[in-house]
Amino acid sequence: MDVGHNQDAARVLATNLDAMKQPGGRVVVLLGMLADKQPDLFVEALKQVVDDWWLLTLDCDRGLGAVQLASRIESQAKAEQLFDNVTDALDHALSSLSNQDIMLVTGSFVTVELLLRALSDSGEQN
User: Has this prediction a pTM greater than 0.85?
Assistant: First the structure.
């Protein structure tokens, strides 16, 4: 989890993810962002180390829907999955990711808050 939401934060994340990536493993990003941010620049800085982009709807005042977010990043990356809620994203992650994979949840404080609440509600530990 990381609350980064700008290009500078994404550059640091890219460096760290590259160092953490396991042989045979994938890097999957669950991205949710607010409408007043620049998701295309965020994705541009990360795209060299990310294998799959999963987009999350942020259902809040300034939140982007997953479809809107997909259209704002399409010049940089293709979204593999779109989720309307974080619970569906977690269910998909549990059924499709391996131990070698990294799932980064990022793009906003709101995105990380949604994940933490979902984990707390499910009784799982992070």
Answer: yes
